[in-house]
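Deviation from plan, reported transparently: iron/sulfur cluster complex.
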Amino acid sequence: MNNRTLATILARVEKSLGQTTPPAMVKIGQKRDPFRILVGCLLSARTRDEVTESACARLFPQVKGPRDLLKLSSRQLEREIYPVAFYRNKAKALKSLCSDLIERFDGQVPETLEELLTLKGVGRKTANLTLILAFDGMGICVDTHVHRIANRWGYVEAATPEQTEQALRKKLPQKYWQRFNELLVGFGQTICKPMSPLCSQCPLDNYCPRIGVGKHR
Ligand code: SF4
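Because the crystal trials were delayed, the predicted structure below was used instead.
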């Protein structure tokens, strides 16, 4: 796929999203608050957008930073974030993350990918998304949607999200890095779904080789 085809594809993806509600993390990121974004990313793993948003809406009025979060008991924190997936584990992880932020970064969220990746419980997806949304940094956030769709297009050929990120870093023009996740998440939730994608309604029908796609509609 050359860059002109890629540009056409991404323009069509954007058009297909129309007035679709943006992903939860884009909404949470609108305030550009690094702590909220980092916590929101961790809460959002394997959790529906509306559940993440309501957990954040309960949590953030009382928690403005890591010291506030550590003042909550584990039981209180679990109650605030319930029913996000694995809420007990996530409550523990959030406490651990906040202690780490205080001990090593004076309670501030660090601004580089390398430092973000040293935080307890922070993986590449969260680090990249925090870098992009909080600091306008150059990251590529590869979640399950980006990994799946980039491989279905044949734009990359990678077995894991980490490999997809590395492949994208080599070939995706930088002007698309920051928005790639937002576009593909929305597209993956509405059209190029994990199971049985809606190929008959897809604006990329003529461009997509549907690599690895079995049943589709
Ligand atoms: S044609 Fe099907 S597999 Fe390809 S992008 Fe569209 S929905 Fe996804």
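The pocket of iron/sulfur cluster is lined by residues 152, 191-192, 197-199, 202, 204-205, 208, 210, 213, 216 (CB under 6 Å). We consider this an acceptable substitute for the interim report.
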